[in-house]
Amino acid sequence: MTTELTGRTAIITGASRGIGLAIGQRLAQAGANVVLTSRDQQSADAAAAQIDGDALGVAAHVAEDDAAQRCVDLTLERFGSIDILVNNAGTNPAFGPLIDQDHGRFAKIFDVNLWGPLLWTSCAVKSWMGEHGGAVVNTASIGGMSSAPLMGMYNATKAALIHLTKQLVLELSPGVRVNAICPGVVRTKLAEVLWQEHEQALSTTMPLGRIGEPVDVADAVAFLVSDAASWITGQTLVVDGGQILGDATGFRAGHGG
């Protein structure tokens, strides 16, 4: 089995830059038609222009019902199928201690990070995948598997997304596979606060010696949506260079690493 995707169509939310754009580029390289969403049409069009293949940019706020259905309808009109859905859009307006958050930030982060994936999966399944099958990948985070200072609200949404992924597997089986990816620190604008001022120091602590690049995550997604992963569903694939295991520096001493 390979990650060949010729003839298939993928929707990637939050795809104007970073991980989402890299996923679009990687799936297009594998032969898929790709639909990239962003909050405004100009950004969506700019992302589509960076795809080497058949691509469509669609303006859609990930948490709005009408926008999701419109994108699904446009995708079917243009390409005739929705074989792959990557729920990548995410936000973090709630950086800081949990007790300092307000309901506005709580509602926004859960709307985008949790309701969005459920909404888009629902639209894709009801419009196409429920009858024809498909593969869904939700972008979670290693934060959803642990705790970290100032990231409590964001991590709560990602923990909930991991659970939602498993629930959807059972509800949508056997025709639709649903998996989650959990990136560690990746070189994106959303994650700048986690690496920008101390990238070298952070990289030194990581087992693989560097922070992630968007393509690292994109390669994992390409595998999960392909036939090479046809018997994989309900899994949470950690893509973090070993970061979740902790500081590696002390362990390297014995072999001069």
TrEMBL record:
UniProt keyword list: Oxidoreductase
Similarity remark: Belongs to the short-chain dehydrogenases/reductases (SDR) family.
GO molecular function, one term: oxidoreductase activity
Protein name: 3-ketoacyl-ACP reductase
A Pfam family annotated for this UniProt entry: adh_short_C2
Keyword Transport: no
Organism expressing this protein natively: Mycolicibacter algericus
Ranges in a coiled coil: none
Gene3D superfamilies to which the protein is assigned, alphabetical: NAD(P)-binding Rossmann-like Domain (3.40.50.720)
Family matches, as InterPro entries: NAD(P)-bd_dom_sf, SDR_fam
